[in-house]
Amino acid sequence: MTKELLLEIGCEELPASWLPSLTLQLSTRLRDRLQEMRLEPRELPLVFSTPRRLVATIPDLETSQHDLEESLTGPPVSAGYDSDGTPTSAAIGFARKHGVDVSDLSEVVTPKGRYLAFQKRHVQRSASEVLPAVLAATLRDLMFPKQMRWDAWLDDGRGEFLFGRPIRWLVFLLGGEVVPFIIKRADAAECADVKEIKASNITYGHRFIGQVQPGPEITVGSFTEYRAQLADRGVVLSRVERADIIEKGLVERASAHGGTIDSEAAAQSALLEEIPDLVECPNVISGSFSEEFLTLPPEILKTTMIHHQHFVPVVGKNHKLKSMFLAVTNTSSANADRVANNASRVLAARLRDARFFWDADRKVKLETRLDRLDTLLFHKNLGSYKDKTVRMEELSVWIAEEVLQKPNIAKDVATAARLSKTDLTTEMVGEFPELQGVMGGIYAREEGQSEQTWRTIYHHYLPVGPEEGARPTRAELGSAGLVWVAVALADKLDTIVGMFSAGERPTGSRDPFGLRRQAHGLFKILIDLPDLADVTVRPSISELIVAAHGLFTAAGHSKELPEAMQDFLIERLQHVLQQRGYDIRNVRAVTKSLRSNIKPLDALRKLEVLPEFTESTDFQQLAVAFKRVRNIACELPDAEFELAERDDPDLRKLLNEDAECHLLQELEQRGPIINNVITAGEDYRTGFAEAARFGPVVDQFFSEVFVMVDDVALRRARLRLVKRLERLILELADISEVVPGDDT
Amino acid sequence: MHPETFLRVLGPVPWRVAYVQPSRRPADGRFGENPNRLFKHHQFQVVLKPAPDEAQDLYLESLEACGIKPGAHDIRFEEDNWEAPTLGAWGVGWQVMLDGLEITQFTYFQQAGGQELSPITAELTYGLERIAMHLQHVDNVFDLEWAPGVKYGAVRQQEEVEQSRYAFGHVDMPSDKFSSFHRDLFDRYYEFAQTLLESRLVFPALDYCLKCSHVFNLLDASGGIGVTERTAYVLRVRRLAVAIAKAYVGVDESVESKDD
After folding, report:
1. CB neighbours (10 Å) of residue A665?
2. Which CATH number applies to B3-167: 3.20.20.80, 3.30.930.10, 3.30.450.20, 3.40.720.10?
3. What is the pLDDT confidence band of residue B259, given thresholds at 50, 70 and 90?
4. Which residue from A58, A164, A263, B243 has the fewest beta carbons nearer than 10 Å?
């Protein structure tokens, strides 16, 4: 037999950003706890949430536990009875432990022999008997970003009960009948105003909507009834429905005013994701602000509306902001005009504040803010933000001149780097920290700095994600592409190399300085260089970090490159490339290299063509053999190899077998072609095609030639041959990582 | 923070109190020029210990008593946790929004003076200027009617101008002297707070701890301390607050005499 289960945890307002995860947790944890108690739900519980309630329901929960017969193994039969068949103390003890007679024991045959056993039948308990323990465990399971103490206790032996916000009521019904459950209160708090919370069949609707006499309590039986009753009292239980109402409302309101919602701004801020979790009864209203505020930069207007007020900006047909906003309230439409009016006044006050900052900030030039910047600490071992910008200036100019080969942009690069962090001292960024960089760019523009300079400052914290489409776009960068590349790279390199030098590095989920994100930004720039700035250079990771590190060693830090940083960077590069959709095995192949000077852009270009080869027979042949090549090549130390190559470059006279001469010939023929590809950094298709042609020759070599012969000179010659091959192929990729068709 | 809150939330004794408290935030000083931001504003503080189950409802009823009908507005409890690092105090709760205007901070205290609290206290901090501006339909705080025929500006604007000038160091004194004078003040208040504490005079000790906290805020606003030093100051005040809290609840522990 089955009955409907209904659980509602009535809370004081839970933070909106927690709801998506909490809802999911409630579903899986409740299911797991039911399973553990042998009340197997057929499907995951249906779950809902609003700021004031977490809800789960199962239409057909079994009303009693599944059977469970457990076979408990005791002592071997041989030890259980003595020679005349009398039970020994071992058998008696085993039986007593389970509260039965020896005569109730049975025998089981195991691979180790015959054993005494007790077939324990668990008593089937009814669901209503078991459910209180299920609920207690489920409540304990829910994880919150921050939990609070609220003088609550559970009788589950674990004592004090922390939760996200205080629970005010509990609906817990099986087939419409209340399942008894109590949340107790701490002795220190219990009084007439602080009472136990007892599960009941009473819920509450929206705080202010549809309250009818004699009181706010609503008695419920089934989920259908519950949902309908809540709807009557202003609560839209389903998040999907709320999101739908909100979206339709926003679109209608905006178009009624001849505009559209600024979806780009709203999406960037995840505003529309959050709003459905802030309200039980969504209702869209519109308000306006004085046109005079439109003279403020749109970034400020948008941030004020979105981040501070949860308002949605509206743009006209020309994509310019209109002097209006939309807001989603948690009230009935009856109050719309009053609320809109008040909300407009609040926004106006905020915008007046912003204008005050705008006017005050512009009285102090960015250049003169450098002194104040010196009092802002970047890191205790790395100095102030001013120190950081001094390093950034030097590094970015070096990038411009030496890496990008554009000495003519050095002046803009230097200015942009030097001023990049000065906005941290402005009132506007103090008030709106999310506008760091953006405000610096705007103020630089107002001061008459070049477009290259101000756009660079504006976007220098970007990109924050590795995705292909991550901002900034070419259009956003305008003419600043190259200058931006130099400064944005310098900022990230300085942070990563500096933090690692200072002993700060991400561990597990801890990454307090956001170094992973910095690395993702770094590699995103490096692999998208041609698109972002029309340049063909392919800087290697090592040349960049060595340059960045030099500025720290000059300041007295260790001369050693932090070892963990190398692995960290390779791992991050692999992550970024994987994000672009490339197979992890291929990604590993192109990021493992003999030399540490991986060029991220080359890695990407190799990946673009590598899949064309991985299925071919020759290539597979080489991939398999290459593992062997690598193993054998280890036998010859690098230094010894290099010395021999220099002193006695001609191998031919040292070799005698056909197969090895053949391989040498192939190396001499294909080597230059592959090396040309590597140097040019393009046409890797040709490179891999040439490499694949080694397949049969290498196979033949290994089947006909024994490398580790006793003759030292011959052995070394053969090792050199193998090592030449290894080095050549490794310039392309460690193709031993590429084993196609093997998905495990 | 007022002793009626900071000390009374500690320990097991039930406590309920309401009072108006001026709140001085040097960094918010705007020379009387900003219509919303003040060096000094007024809060109506309500302390409910233990936090009653109906705290939110009681709060909403109090708004109604002020003439704000909750059902006619968009009232929200939006996540906003409160923290006072110098006092080792924090709690979880909300900012209460009235049609988009933050009018109250509602906090369930979790710790004060570094001590775990039991029972838990609910603290309501009503922003009086904000609520008055809403009720009087005024957009500039200085236009509020303070008493019949008397504007807020007439009573408070001069003070705002002068306090802001002081807070930002616009004093006839070189800035290094200004800051060294305040550092000295801080040290003396600090030292005396410790003496008071050793004399088992907890309430006076808290007064001097609060003076330290205020002088620190002034130093901070006038740009007199760098970031590293700032952290050190915060820790010192915090250490004092923790000692005071411990003394109040009777944990016998002498105050560390050194700031190591």
Report:
1. 12
2. 3.30.930.10
3. very low
4. A263
Query: Is A604 inside any structural domain?
Result: no
Cβ-nearest to A343 among B50, B99, B223: B99
Q: Is the ipTM of this complex over 0.90?
A: yes
Delimiting residues of CATH 1.20.58.180 domain(s) in chain B: 175-249
CA A310 to CA A343: how far, in whole Å? 11
Virtual CA dihedral for B83, B85, B89, B95, nearest 10 degrees?
Answer: -10
Buried b (16+ CB within 10 A) or exposed e, A443-478: bbbeeebbebbbbbbbbbbbbeebeeeeebeeeebe
Residue at A577 is within a domain:
yes
- Distances in Å between the Cα of B231 and the Cα atoms of B179, B225, B237 are 17, 10, 10
Predicted confidence band at B228 (pLDDT cuts at 50, 70, 90)? low
CATH of B175-249, one of 1.20.58.180, 3.30.230.70, 1.20.1250.20, 3.40.50.2000: 1.20.58.180
Query: Rounded distance, CA A17 to CA A271, Å?
Result: 11
Q: Give the residue range(s) of CATH 3.30.930.10 domains in chain B.
A: 3-167
The 10s digit of each residue's pLDDT in A42-98 is 889 999 999 999 999 999 999 988 877 888 888 888 888 888 888 888 888 988 888
| DSSP code at position A87 | B
Over residues A188-196, mean pLDDT: 92
Number of domains in chain A: 5
Q: Are residues A422 and A565 in the same domain?
A: yes
Q: What's the pLDDT score for residue A438?
A: 96
Whether residue A220 is predicted with pLDDT greater than 90 in this model: the reply is yes
What would the pLDDT profile of A543-553 be if each residue is shown by its tens digit?
A: 999 999 999 98
Which of chain B's residues have a Cβ under 8 Å away from the Cβ of A13?
Answer: 76-79, 94
Average pLDDT of the residues in A257-285:
88
- Flag if A13 and B71 touch (Cβ within 8 Å): no
To the nearest whole Å, the CA of B253 is away from the closest chain A CA by 24
Residue type, A651: L
Reference A159, options A174, A140, A178; nearest CA is A140
The answer on pLDDT for A256 being more than 70 is yes
> A720 and A620 share a domain?
yes
| A-chain residues near B71 (CB < 8 A) | 208-209
Q: What are the chain A neighbours of B30 within 8 Å (beta carbons)?
A: 356
Assess whether pLDDT exceeds 90 at residue B181.
yes
Per-residue confidence band for A740, with pLDDT thresholds at 50, 70 and 90: low
Smallest CA–CA distance, residue A346 to chain B, in Å, is 6
Helix (H) or strand (E) holding A716: helix A712-732
pLDDT band at A529 (very low <50, low <70, confident <90, very high): very high
Q: Which domain holds residue A401?
A: 368-581
Query: How many CB atoms neighbour CB A257 within 10 A?
Result: 14
Distance CA(A417)–CA(A376), nearest Å, equals 17
b/e burial code for range A165-177 (CB count within 10 A of at least 16 → b): bbbbbbbbbbbee
**Two structure tokens written together for B253:** 């522990």
